[in-house]
Design brief:
Oligomer: single chain
Radius of gyration: 20 Å
Helix content: 40-55%
């Protein structure tokens, strides 16, 4: 079996669950946040630094690694783990998110998706079979079925047509997938329509995957709509298999996602906003490049135990960001990834001790009505 998943504890007042997911490259304690390494690297970070802060699994992108340097080269190097010197678990997205993010550069048919390369304009035709074959060559532990991530808003008729095509593509992915050390997850679509979400769950679960993802959320819809669809969809998924919410990574979304029963998350948010001089704290986001921090000789977040906060002040980091020094964005990235890793560790401990309900209320109250003004995703800048 490619993976093993166990539910260890469930919250008595919410849908939150503590779990253990075992892959060929180790044990993952869930709920878990997966940093995004689109190009086989989490931007500005070394594998050793990621391990030091407790990163258990990272996400890389099939479309981008196919385009550059090529999956055959990575296979020749011994697979993605060896190529990027990462001996823990890896999940790869299928390229379905690029159907959304590169909408101006693609055309969709029943057979697959024609992309005009964002690098040189060359034409590449992605089919479910090719997306699966690329991921088998990469050798990631968990791979995703090829799907269509539709935009928001999207009318009911197209959302239905799209989800049914996604189901047919998922069946084609499963038919060609043959690596026994690799788990293929199915993806639920259906836009912001509850009836279509239920239909998608029924169709995808019928195909019997070892894990399931909820796609097509955090694509521009209002927060309350996202929560409503998530709260409706998550409980429909099998309880004995991992549930993955794609492209979500702000602290409030993570906490609420856990409350709805989600086990796995990914997003570029912590690394992307770090490069813009914004850091995550328990009181919300802090824009360190602002002048108000020019003479603050305290850590980004007092009490934080990350490398950045143990060694550098707000004033110094602001100086580095303003001066466009690479160290500045390395330090903000380290802090943001540590913050989310630590948040998930706290969440797991709270579920274990059956105090997640109170923990959730306390953290969300301290954070306030923070607006992260961010559309999610699993694709870093390229």
């Amino acid at each position: 079996m490619a993976i093993k998943y166990e539910v260890l504890k469930e919250c008595s007042k919410t849908g939150a669950r503590l779990g253990r997911l075992t892959t060929a490259h180790g044990v993952i304690e869930t709920p878990v946040f997966m940093p995004v390494g689109t190009q086989a690297t989490v931007k500005t970070m070394t594998p050793e630094e990621l391990k030091e802060m407790g990163t258990q699994i990272i996400l890389s992108n099939t479309y981008h690694l196919y385009m550059r340097p090529g999956h055959k080269l990575i296979e020749k190097a011994g697979g993605l783990h060896k190529f990027m010197n990462w001996d823990r678990s890896i999940l790869t997205d299928s390229g379905g998110f690029q159907v959304f993010s590169l909408a101006k550069l693609r055309d969709i048919t029943e057979e697959g998706v024609k992309f005009n390369s964002h690098l040189d304009g060359s034409i590449h035709f992605f089919t479910p079979e090719l997306a699966t074959e690329i991921q088998m060559a990469l050798g990631s532990d968990i791979i995703m079925a090829f799907d269509e991530c539709i935009p928001y808003p999207c009318d009911w008729d197209y959302a239905k047509k799209s989800l049914e095509r996604t189901t047919r593509w998922a069946a084609r992915c499963k038919k060609v997938h043959s690596r026994e050390d690799q788990a293929l997850f199915g993806i639920v679509q259906g836009g912001m329509y509850k009836d279509l979400r239920r239909l998608s769950v029924e169709q995808i679960v019928e195909l019997d995957f070892p894990g399931y993802a909820i796609g097509g959320l955090s694509v521009g819809e209002p927060k309350e709509v996202m929560y409503e669809i998530l709260a409706y969809t998550a409980p429909l998924l099998p309880k004995d298999k991992p549930r993955y919410l794609m492209g979500v990574g702000s602290p409030d979304y993570l906490i609420e996602g856990v409350a709805f029963g989600i086990d796995m998350f990914d997003c570029v948010l912590p690394t992307r906003i770090a490069r813009n001089g914004t850091v995550l704290t328990k009181k919300g986001k802090l824009v360190i490049r602002n002048a108000t921090y020019a003479e603050e000789f305290i850590p980004l977040e007092p009490g934080c135990n990350c490398y950045t906060c143990r060694n550098y002040s707000r004033a110094y980091i602001r100086h580095l960001i303003k001066a466009n020094e690479i160290l500045g964005i390395r330090l903000t990235t380290i802090h943001n990834l540590y913050f989310l890793s630590n948040l998930m560790a706290e969440i797991r401990e709270a579920i274990k001790e059956d105090r997640f309900y109170d923990y959730r209320s306390k953290v969300l109250t301290e954070m306030g009505e923070e607006d992260f003004s961010f559309v999610g995703g699993c694709e870093e800048g390229f």
